[in-house]
């Protein structure tokens, strides 16, 4: 029995026999280092069979070893070797090195030693983790570094808080969040050097429910120019400062010779770039002319010339690693966070008028029916004849503005586009013409206007040329069996189609689920609606029924465009996916140019080995970065809209209902956007049914019905630029502020469920909950 007990005591020490009596420092260190599980004081005492006074002596020994810098203490009071990492610990993902996630210990207290950068080994579904995530992980030393094997993704309870310092009447300071989804302010326990009104980053401290904030960084005045963009950048963790090495490499790469003698010379052609009036970079230009080949009578030749970014940003370079980490440029109303340093993105890789530029040219031959008969790709030298705004190009075609390029460049482009448009109409892609908001600022960063961008033929012309080039790139790579980073848009899932069917039924529109779903299916629905008042809301619901597009090396087709093969090729300045497609074309069609003389710049511009091996992982990463950018851009515009409307609080505005829930409905100001809530508690004393299928609230006594898409007038009650939130009320608010009814409704006990004047209608409630 005694022998068995000794064996049990020795088990945690990995079957090593420990000498009787009190352990030496080296024995303690060996045990901690070799243990597969966290080694706290209890585990160490148990391993060496220590009892009573020996445990007290062990506690003193461990404290001495920690004071001497031999040990550190991690989570759950487990010890580990100083400078090392606990076997099981909490890590925070802080970076991406090529395709490998990098994490650091959440707590690191080794003085004078930097926190180790630990490579995260993902298993199962990749892409589940991203920068900012916290994980519980098992760690191990591997060579000269560390590896982490995730065990569990942890809640982001300790992530940084972003907000504005506010002072209450009693003098206490609170942190008001910039995220409108966070409804509670946080008391500030440590203000540092910040002052009232500052936009700050803060670290949460304490334990629930007594969480307070410790200010760590001061970002400045939340209402100053560019602050709304800075809020989004910090909230979403968007990399916005280029490392010095990347900037230096960009300068060196920009000096690479064009090698005009080895490129196709297209400088004699009147190629034009047509872009938004506020475009910061120009990565595409187009040219077209009637085809002189008698075999293609009525057809055209066209060139889509794209900045040759792959020539400057090469696999394995510092530029490449940084571009992959960013995934795409992020466009805010007041600034751009570019994927590439300005030396390239807005200078050497930007197709400026009158300057020789390196380009990847897609040569298209288009027949009289608009079908692309053939295509080829070349590395070329171009000289853009002019950079035109969409509005100016359109005005020239419409005869409203003189332009010397009208005959040689614009008219042929429009004539060729007439053929491409024929092919587009035959293909019948998804036609959702929904408005896009544009925030216009003055030179001091103040808002001049918020308006819907006008949709011109010039926009659709460029769009169709870009689509033709993107399809050609995908098919050219498929012909060589080369890797392709496809732009994938899958067919809508059944759950979303069922929800759409139920919604359309409220308008007496039939939608058969048994049919083969194509983009034309939805287009027919839109035609049925015609120009009725409900058109925009129905298009919005159709959009919500679609799947999210993403990047992947497996081809699943592009449902929305009704295309079997599609890859992004036309914007390598701002999208990493396009850069990979360019590299693949260079390798597949032997378009490599002489190696740079600068040894610091990699020799090849075609796909590297890492590109080949990690296409799937990279696709997941850049798809996630794209979603991050879209959310950041949308939130920033919402803040600008709220700032613009803050001068109109109390006024009655024309609005449209965009969403309905059991607690109220959301509405947006016509022509401006920015969703705001109308709480159900302000709709009156009567009960309301919540019709989930019809997405509506309906009064029991009055029959008043509030449904998605409905236009109505509302009073703007609040506009908060800090979090972009709006709040509306009915113009003749039946429950004015301070009435007994409203005070009763806002009591905490009543608000612990749905509002008291709400009831569900129909059997759809349970069905929707299951989805």
Task: Please name the defining characteristics of this protein.
771 residues; alpha+beta; Arc Repressor Mutant, subunit A; OB fold (Dihydrolipoamide Acetyltransferase, E2P); 5-stranded mixed β-barrel; RNase_II/R; RNA-binding; cytoplasm
Write the layout of secondary structure elements.
Layout: H1 2-10, H2 25-34, H3 41-47, H4 53-67, E1 71-73, E2 79-81, E3 88-97, E4 100-105, E5 118-120, E6 134-142, E7 145-154, E8 161-167, E9 173-177, E10 186-190, E11 199-207, E12 210-220, H5 227-236, H6 244-254, E13 264-265, E14 272-275, E15 284-290, E16 300-307, H7 309-312, H8 318-326, E17 330-331, E18 336-337, H9 342-348, E19 356-366, E20 372-383, E21 386-389, H10 390-397, H11 406-427, E22 437-441, E23 447-452, H12 457-479, E24 486-488, H13 494-505, H14 519-529, H15 535-544, E25 550-552, H16 576-588, H17 609-613, H18 615-645, E26 652-661, E27 664-669, E28 673-679, E29 688-691, E30 696-699, E31 705-707, E32 711-720, E33 725-729, H19 740-745, E34 758-760, H20 764-770
Parallel strand pairs: 5-7, 10-12, 13-20, 14-21, 28-33, 29-34
Antiparallel strand pairs: 1-2, 3-4, 3-6, 4-5, 6-7, 8-9, 8-11, 9-10, 11-12, 15-16, 16-19, 17-18, 19-20, 22-23, 24-25, 26-27, 26-32, 27-28, 29-30, 30-31, 32-33
Helix pairs in contact: 5-18, 6-9, 11-12, 12-16, 13-15
């Amino acid at each position: 029995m005694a022998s068995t007990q000794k064996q049990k005591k020795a088990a945690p020490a990995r079957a090593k026999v420990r000498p009787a009596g009190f352990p030496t420092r080296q024995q303690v260190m060996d045990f901690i280092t070799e243990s597969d599980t966290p080694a706290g004081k209890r585990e160490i005492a148990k391993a060496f069979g220590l009892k009573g006074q020996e445990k007290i002596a062990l506690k003193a020994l461990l404290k001495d070893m920690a004071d001497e810098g031999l040990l550190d203490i991690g989570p759950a009071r487990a010890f580990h070797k100083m400078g090392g990492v606990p076997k099981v610990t909490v890590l925070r993902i802080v970076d991406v090195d090529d395709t490998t996630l990098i994490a650091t210990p959440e707590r690191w207290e080794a003085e004078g030693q930097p926190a180790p950068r630990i490579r995260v080994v993902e298993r199962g579904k990749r892409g589940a983790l991203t920068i900012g995530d916290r994980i519980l992980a098992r760690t191990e030393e591997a060579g000269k570094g560390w590896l982490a094997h995730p065990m569990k993704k942890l809640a982001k309870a300790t992530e940084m808080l972003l907000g504005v310092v506010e002072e209450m009447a009693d003098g206490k300071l609170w942190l008001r969040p910039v995220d409108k989804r966070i409804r509670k302010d946080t008391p500030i326990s440590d203000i540092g050097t910040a002052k009232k009104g500052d936009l700050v980053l803060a670290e949460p401290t304490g334990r629930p429910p007594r969480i307070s904030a410790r200010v760590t960084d001061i970002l400045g005045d939340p209402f100053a120019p560019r602050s709304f963009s800075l809020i989004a950048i910090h909230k979403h963790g968007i990399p916005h400062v280029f490392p010095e090495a990347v900037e230096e490499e960009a300068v060196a790469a920009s000096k690479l010779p064009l090698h005009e003698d080895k490129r196709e010379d297209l400088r004699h052609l009147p190629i034009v770039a047509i872009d938004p009036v506020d475009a910061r970079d120009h990565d595409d230009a187009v040219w077209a002319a009637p085809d002189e080949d008698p075999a293609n009578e009525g057809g055209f030749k066209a060139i889509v010339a794209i900045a040759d970014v792959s020539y400057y940003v090469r696999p394995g370079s510092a530029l490449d690693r940084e571009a992959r980490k960013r995934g795409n440029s992020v466009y805010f109303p007041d600034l751009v966070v570019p994927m590439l340093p300005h030396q390239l993105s807005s200078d050497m890789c930007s197709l400026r008028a009158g300057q020789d530029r390196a380009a990847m040219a897609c040569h298209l031959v288009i027949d009289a029916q608009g079908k692309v008969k053939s295509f080829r790709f070349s590395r070329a030298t171009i000289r853009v004849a002019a950079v035109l705004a969409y509005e100016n190009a359109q005005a020239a075609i419409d005869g409203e503005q003189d332009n010397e390029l009208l005959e040689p460049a614009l008219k042929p482009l429009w004539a060729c586009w007439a053929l491409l448009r024929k092919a587009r109409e035959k293909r019948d892609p998804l036609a959702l013409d929904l408005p896009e908001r544009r925030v216009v600022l003055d030179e001091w960063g103040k808002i001049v206007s918020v308006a819907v961008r006008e949709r011109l033929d010039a926009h659709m012309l460029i769009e169709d040329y870009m689509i033709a080039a993107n399809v050609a790139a995908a098919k050219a790579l498929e012909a060589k069996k080369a890797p392709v980073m496809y732009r994938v848009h899958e067919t809508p899932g059944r759950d979303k189609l069922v929800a759409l069917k139920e919604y359309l039924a409220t308008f007496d529109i039939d939608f058969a689920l048994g049919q083969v779903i194509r983009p034309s299916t939805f287009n027919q629905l839109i035609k049925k609606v015609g120009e009725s008042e409900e058109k925009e809301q129905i298009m919005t619901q159709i959009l919500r029924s679609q799947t999210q597009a993403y990047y992947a090396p497996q081809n699943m087709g592009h449902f929305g465009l009704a295309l079997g093969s599609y890859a992004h090729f036309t914007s390598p300045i701002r999208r990493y996916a396009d850069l990979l497609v360019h590299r693949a074309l260079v390798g597949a069609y032997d378009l490599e140019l002489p190696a740079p003389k600068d040894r610091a710049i990699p020799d090849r511009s075609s796909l590297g080995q890492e590109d080949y091996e990690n296409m799937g992982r990279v696709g997941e990463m850049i798809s996630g970065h794209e979603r991050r950018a879209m959310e950041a851009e949308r939130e920033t515009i919402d803040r600008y809209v709220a700032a613009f409307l803050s001068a109109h609080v109390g006024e009655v505005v024309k609005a449209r209902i965009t969403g309905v829930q059991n607690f109220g409905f959301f509405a947006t100001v016509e022509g401006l956007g920015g969703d705001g809530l109308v709480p159900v508690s302000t709709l009156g004393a009567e009960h309301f049914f919540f019709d989930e299928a019809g997405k509506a609230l309906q009064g029991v006594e009055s029959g008043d019905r509030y449904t998605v898409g409905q236009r109505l007038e509302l009073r703007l009650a609040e506009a908060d630029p800090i979090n972009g939130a709006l709040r509306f009320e009915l113009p003749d608010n039946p429950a004015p502020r301070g009435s007994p009814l409203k005070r009763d409704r806002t009591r905490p006990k009543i608000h612990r469920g749905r509002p008291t004047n709400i009831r569900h209608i129909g059997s759809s409630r349970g069905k929707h909950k299951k989805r």
